[in-house]
């Protein structure tokens, strides 16, 4: 997996102060995407063990609320396979940090084994995520007043409550 950027102390991509990982590679290619350079799977730098250590170190301070995954597309199968070990290490090291993920897929699509974004690790990855912002960015539904999302079709989903109830539960601050 490659990544375009790692941001420390980000307040725009999830609740609280976060570390964000912008993965590379996206086949969804939403019209007027804010980062079309990340569509290329080889964009940026290779995500190595050193990158992983640096990212996990950035997450250590108590004022950091968690990790946000975006891109590109974290739920491209190639990226999921690389992200799963990272999230497993984070959960083992500090389960108090929240994990947010942005995806152009809907959660229903990711639950469907026939979805292009679904692979052998999708279910495991979804269980490690606290909040998903789902749905493709749609220019015609752009709304700059929305918090943590770009278009009104996108949802902010509380994954823990969704798992408990079996029905999609939207995140509430």
What would the keywords be for this entry?
globular; 26% helix; seven-stranded mixed β-sheet; 7 strands; alpha/beta; 173 residues
Task: Give a nutshell description of this structure.
This protein has 173 residues and is of the alpha/beta class. 26% of the residues lie in helices and 21% in strands. The chain has helices at residues 49-58, 77-93, 107-111, 122-127, 159-165; strands at residues 2-10, 18-23, 45-46, 66-71, 98-102, 131-134, 155-158.
**Range of strand content:** 15-25%
**Strands side by side in the biggest sheet:** 3-1-2-4-5-6-7
Backbone CA Rg = 15 Å
Category by helix and strand content:
alpha/beta
- How do the helices and strands follow one another from N- to C-terminus? EEEHEHEHHEEH
Explain this structure to me?
The protein is of the alpha/beta class. Helix content is 26%, strand content 21%.
Note the topology.
Blueprint: E1 2-10, E2 18-23, E3 45-46, H1 49-58, E4 66-71, H2 77-93, E5 98-102, H3 107-111, H4 122-127, E6 131-134, E7 155-158, H5 159-165
Parallel strand pairs: 2-4, 4-5, 5-6
Antiparallel strand pairs: 1-2, 1-3, 6-7
